[in-house]
Amino acid sequence: MGGAYWVAELDGAIAASALWTYHQLGPSFQDREGHVGLVCGVAVHPSARGNGLARLLLAKLDEEMRAAGLTHAFLEVVSSNAAAVGLYQSLGYQGFDLAMLKPL
Length: 104
Ligand SMILES: CC(C)(COP(=O)(O)OP(=O)(O)OC[C@H]1O[C@@H](n2cnc3c(N)ncnc32)[C@H](O)[C@@H]1OP(=O)(O)O)[C@@H](O)C(=O)NCCC(=O)NCCS
Known about the structure:
This protein is α+β, with helices and mostly antiparallel strands. The chain has one domain (about 5-90): Gcn5-related N-acetyltransferase (GNAT) (Aminopeptidase, 3-Layer(aba) Sandwich). About 25% of the residues lie in helices and about 30% in strands. Coenzyme A binds near residues 52, 77 and 90. Coenzyme A binds near residues 42, 43 and 50.
């Protein structure tokens, strides 16, 4: 098992964060070869956005996940979050499977 939680500092204060950990995907991934990392906690302080911090942290996560022997990175994002969707797509993430929800 493993993973890492990275932060980026600007002027001595934490301005961005991202983490990865090992992840067990369900049956929709079972027919593929490989091991999956879960990426979450991606956030950049509003005053620091648009400067490439998220791209920098996610590149670091990719590097570590590859070094750990993982073959895929997985994350969840709501489709209305245009900044995050744009970020992830620019880094090679694509839509995968179907999420479902109902009120109880
Ligand atoms: C999503 C978020 C992490 C992006 O952080 P950021 O440091 O501003 O992103 P970067 O500067 O590294 O941008 C990298 C790429 O992301 C995409 N991107 C960033 N902001 C975007 C926006 N507002 N709209 C569309 N694409 C955007 C672009 O492709 C950008 O590359 P470019 O600058 O060459 O065009 C930041 O907006 C944030 O913290 N949002 C609130 C928390 C959140 O929603 N986290 C994701 C949860 S799944």
